[in-house]
Task: inverse folding
């Protein structure tokens, strides 16, 4: 007899509108120009998605100079510094920008602040491609990066009365609120977005995990180790009291020993993890347990982003 277990399935979970659009852009590029098409950086941070597109003829590289000039190149959903499209243009390459519109919105915000003579403080994770892309919208030194509330005290600014703040879109909502409070305490005239720049998908998935945490003894988040929003979901689970919160890329990574004696498990997926991986995990549970699946829906998402014009004019 299999032991009984209830799997509480978070909704919303998995693919967001920005990821969906970026994946479609690669697929449509392959249709339009044939293989190979080049993609600068993983189109979204998910190995399964990248491998699937690679099997169809997408070639993933880290830098533009790894792409031949006579093949199209796509920029990933995370966004790129301004120098990247400028270089593609200089080399006369066809390029398609798959930057999520919500990341582009932050780019525009940064530019607008800079035009108003404000120096920008970005809250984000050093080295993340989105942060590199956003900081690269302006000349070096115009955007200062901080990661935690503790960084605020040591921040050296040009003029404390001429500052604005922006954020990475995939941060922890709660941690970011702390950093913003520390910034506002030190720089009272600081200008910023209403609340933060964290996107709807990140916000909704974190809120769903908080509700889920009230019901469960363990949480599994399907996502890649380099996926910022997926890692934040694990932290949100732990902070909400779910000590056994694990990130797994595939069902094969589940640590079944850690679930010994547990009967209520929560399951969610980061914004770059496709639903097929959720199904795979559910099936792995079904193999081992007398399984009940319960949906915990905390919001409905209806957001969709249009693909670039270059594909819409094709018909
Ligand atoms: S997680 Fe948010 S910012 Fe990132 S691609 Fe999805 S919608 Fe866009």
Result:
């Amino acid at each position: 007899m299999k032991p009984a277990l209830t799997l509480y399935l978070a909704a919303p979970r998995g693919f967001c509108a920005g990821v969906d659009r970026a994946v479609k852009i690669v697929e449509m590029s392959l249709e339009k120009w044939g293989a190979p098409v080049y993609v600068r950086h993983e189109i979204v941070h998910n190995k399964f998605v990248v491998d699937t597109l690679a099997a169809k003829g997408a070639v993933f590289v880290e830098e533009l100079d790894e792409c031949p000039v006579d093949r199209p190149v796509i920029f990933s959903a995370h966004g790129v510094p301004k120098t990247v499209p400028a270089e593609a243009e200089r080399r006369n390459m066809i390029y398609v920008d798959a930057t999520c519109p919500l990341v582009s919105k932050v780019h525009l915000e940064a530019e607008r602040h800079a035009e108003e003579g404000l120096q920008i403080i970005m809250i984000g994770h050093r080295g993340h491609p989105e942060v590199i892309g956003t900081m690269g919208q302006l000349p070096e030194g115009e955007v200062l990066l901080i990661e935690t509330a503790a960084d605020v005290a040591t921040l050296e600014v040009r003029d404390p009365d001429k500052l604005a703040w922006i954020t990475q879109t995939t941060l922890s909502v709660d941690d970011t609120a702390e950093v913003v409070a520390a910034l506002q305490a030190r720089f009272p005239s600081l200008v910023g977005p209403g609340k933060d720049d964290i996107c709807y998908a990140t916000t909704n998935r974190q809120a769903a995990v908080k509700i889920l945490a009230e019901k469960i003894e363990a949480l599994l988040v399907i996502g890649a180790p380099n996926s910022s929003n997926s890692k934040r979901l694990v932290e949100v689970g732990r902070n909400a009291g779910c000590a056994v919160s694990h990130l797994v890329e595939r069902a094969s990574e589940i640590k079944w020993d850690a679930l010994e004696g547990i009967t209520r498990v929560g399951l969610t997926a980061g914004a770059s993890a496709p639903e097929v991986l959720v199904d795979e995990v559910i099936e792995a549970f079904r193999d081992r347990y007398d399984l009940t699946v319960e949906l915990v829906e905390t919001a409905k998402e209806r957001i969709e982003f249009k693909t670039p014009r270059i594909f819409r004019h094709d018909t």
The two ends are 57 Å apart (CA to CA). The chain has a mean pLDDT of 97. Residues 16-19, 77, 100, 102-103, 169-170, 199, 201-202, 229, 271 surround iron/sulfur cluster (CB under 6 Å).
